[in-house]
Amino acid sequence: VQAILDDCDVPRLRLSSLEPWDLEGDFFDLWKNPRMCRQLHLPLQSGSAAVLQRMGRNTDPVSYAQLVESARQSIPDVAITTDIIVGFPGEIEAEFEQSLAFVKQMQFARGHVFSYSARPGTAASKMTGQVAHQVRKQRNMRMREALGETQRAYRERFIGRRLVVLWETNKAHNERGWLMSGLTDNYLRVYAWSERPLWNKVTGVMLTGLDEHGLWGEICED
Question: Does residue 116 contact residue 89 with C-beta atoms inside 8 Å?
């Protein structure tokens, strides 16, 4: 990553999914460079220490929370996103509740929830305590609701603020102009009307509102 920053002038560099145990202590120093996008996708998979141990993952809720805190202290307004699995073999109700509470505590900016499904030949498929499909479905719904609440809370923090958006596509074109859609560097989806198409352009946007699709704003190109 440092070599890319040193040798290229790309205006934005966004990292993809990173396992939380792969990061060294000085990793967040990279964000001293403003071209680094303020988003980290750190797959958690479960907020229960016992479930993480059965999954064979090299982390636990305490060390994961410490990593997230370090990221937030080093990178202002960073978006921490994650992946969660519900219904992993042996996950009892108390372990799911631990996972749900931890997810709420982390206040993720966004998350993907997956219900465990057995794959032939894997160790997990042979474990005892396979969770009933209906239970997995109910837990998936509850976890999605929790992540939906924290996602909305994160987005609301930015209403009334000016952020920079990279415009990706237009969603409509009518007498009002072009309805543009793009992303801030901290992975907020933003929509705004423009007098001209702004594909692959970067502009400032004053964020004015929020709906189920994302944030809305007014473009300020100065």
Answer: yes
120-155 burial, b if ≥16 CB within 10 A, otherwise e? eeeebeeeeebbeeeebeebbeebeebbeebbeebb
68 phi-psi bin (left φ>0, alpha ψ -120 to 50, beta other): alpha
8-state DSSP, 34: T
User: Do 54 and 89 form a contact (C-beta atoms < 8 A)?
Assistant: yes
Best CA proximity match to 48, nearest among 92, 108, 81:
92
Q: Which of 107, 60, 61, 120 has its CA nearest to residue 81?
A: 107
Residue 156 · residue 107 · CB < 8 Å: no
Distance between CA atoms of 36 and 30, rounded to whole angstroms?
Answer: 7
State the Cα–Cα distance between residues 182 and 162, nearest whole angstrom. 14
Q: What is the pLDDT along the chain (222 residues), one digit of tens a residue?
A: 999 999 999 999 999 999 988 887 789 999 999 999 999 999 999 999 999 999 999 999 999 999 999 999 999 999 999 999 999 999 999 999 999 999 999 999 999 999 999 999 999 999 999 999 999 999 999 999 999 999 999 999 999 999 999 999 988 888 889 999 999 999 999 999 999 999 999 999 999 999 988 999 999 976
Query: Could you tell me which of 55, 65, 70 has the C-alpha nearest to residue 107?
Result: 65
Q: Which of 194, 196, 192, 195 shows the shortest CA–CA distance to 206?
A: 192
